[in-house]
Amino acid sequence: MEANAAQMRPGRTCRSKCILDTDDLHRLSLTERSRLKKVSEHFAFRSNEYYLGLVDWDDPRDPIRRLIVPDIGELITWGQLDASGETSITVRRGVQHKYGSTVVLLVTKMCGGFCRYCFRKRLFIKGNSEINCDIDEGIEYARCHPEVNNVLITGGDPMVLSTAAIDRILTALRSIDHVRIIRIGTKMPAFDPFRFINDRQLLEVLAHHSLPNKRIYLMCHFDHPRELTPEAIRAIDLIQKAGVVCVNQNPIVRGISDKPEVMSELWNELSFIGVPQYYVFQNRPTAGNRPYQVPIVEAYFAVEEAKRHCSGLGKRAKYVMSHETGKIEIIAVDENHIYLKYHRAKHPRDEQRLVICHRDDDAHWFDQLQPVGLIHCAI
């Protein structure tokens, strides 16, 4: 089911042109643009006029600017490109199967914008071949595994594809009876809400495939309350009216989403528009991500403080790490220990397993924690 070139071309519904070169960031000085050029040559830059219009260029610490504009600190040697070992659970090109009931399809290596802290930035490096635009292998794999009731379409961002391509993918998945849930991972409601506002056909496609007993879930990605513009809220409303269930998930990123007051405002505002927070992720130790990292203990207490200022609907999120061995929830921290539990596990023996580790206020990832006794699984 290989989509032709026209079908796979990004949807042409942007309000304004894409910005692909840091030289076009004219609000920055020539000196700064020159410095950032060195970063973008290593880790790609992409945005658009709408999203850059949200930046307060007079504030060098503006969170929207920090999210989308390169930082010289990204060149610090740190981390690895595949921080969660996705290659180890890749069963076909562009197909991942880590948890029994869930298959992940990587359908594009393009996004509406490139988040600086992206954990899949390896996809945007020249020569990467993990993505498979021909989804036949992924569809057939899901069809041959009746335990799979949930397929996540991601990449990249599937919503940059043409509406025809999206329809073909959803049609193919809806032909598999045991696939009850289709999830679409996207930041397009934040990066370019006009992808939905200006494309009635896309909304009709979503409505056609989101059935009463087989829903489509849009896994939205709002990082900061300032992304919830009137246009973004309008896009979400249209998507919901198409019968799609919307939830939000985002990582904790230094200078963007690491403060309790920012978290609570985001979660509350999302609850007001019917988009509950699903996961809050520990930022993965991906190459280039050193400037954006927050230690586990600091992040845990920020999450707990934020919850104090939210209603029950606003604070349902789980704080987790997407580790190579599974999705690990950070459930508590006391004076001496960090308490974790496998929310999803790569190996059945770890499912719902409790892990108790010595408290380390500098640790930012599971591998840096020291287990107490023998309760910790081998990794």
Give your account of this protein's structure.
It is built from twelve helices and 14 strands. The model is unreliable at 1-15 and 374-379 (pLDDT under 50). The longest helix is centred in the last third of the chain and has 13 residues, at 260-272. It has helices at 5-8, 30-40, 49-52, 63-68, 136-143, 163-174, 188-191, 194-197, 200-209, 230-241, 260-272, 296-307, and strands at 18-19, 47-48, 90-92, 95-96, 102-106, 150-154, 181-185, 216-220, 245-252, 277-282, 318-323, 326-333, 337-345, 354-358. The protein is 26% helix and 19% strand.
Q: How does CATH name the architecture?
A: Alpha-Beta Barrel
Distance between the termini: 38 Å
Task: Report the order of strands and helices.
Answer: HEHEHHEEEHEHEHHHEHEHEHEEEE
**What count of structural domains?**
1
Largest sheet, spatial ordering of strands: 3-4-5-6-7-8-9-10-11-12-13-14
CATH topology: TIM Barrel
Name the descriptors:
two-stranded antiparallel sheet; disordered C terminus; 12 helices; alpha/beta; 19% strand; 26% helix; TIM Barrel; 379 residues
Short description:
This protein is of the alpha/beta class and 379 residues long. Helices cover 26% and strands 19% of the residues. It has one domain (5-12, 77-368): Alpha-Beta Barrel (TIM Barrel).
